[in-house]
Amino acid sequence: QLNAGYAKYNGGLQAMVTNKLLTAEEAARKVAQIIGPVVDVVFNGKDVELPKIYDSLEITKKDGTLLVLEVQSHIGENTVRTISMDSTDGLSRGYEVVGTGNPIQMPIGADVYGRLFNVIGDAIDGLPELPKTGENGTPIHRQAPRFEDLSTSSEVLFTVLIQELINNIAKGHGGLS
């Protein structure tokens, strides 16, 4: 009688778990697991190719905000482990994921001087967005410069000059800058 009760309880649990699991078709390019900022994404279906390491994936949340993920590793034949570039609050299993086919890009050029950007290259200083594609952007992961391309000359850098300026102002005002 005890075994019959256990079997009934266990069967109910299994049914509950089975109902929560996603079918293969439902899970095509969907969030499979979330642990803090780490999000596992499953790519099921015929002829589905996993995104490359460092490629970005995008999720549109229910409130309309865009969540960017960066692929960090391939785990298994059809799953990638990603790092979220923003909070995963409100994210749940089953959200649809779209691959961009590109890594996260940052704007480059003279227009970025004095600007503030978030981790995915979006302006956060209230000024207009800058383009991040083509010649106007570069991936956040790239090869280190060759040794021949680095400067080896000795020079006083701006950081030292600014520290001297702060020191002199502090001395002139009784130690307060």
TrEMBL record:
Residues 31-101 form the ATPase F1/V1/A1 complex alpha/beta subunit N-terminal domain. It comes from the Eukaryota. One of its GO terms (molecular function) is proton-transporting ATP synthase activity, rotational mechanism. Belongs to the ATPase alpha/beta chains family. One of its GO terms (cellular component) is proton-transporting ATP synthase complex. The keyword Ribonucleoprotein does not apply. This is ATPase F1/V1/A1 complex alpha/beta subunit N-terminal domain-containing protein.
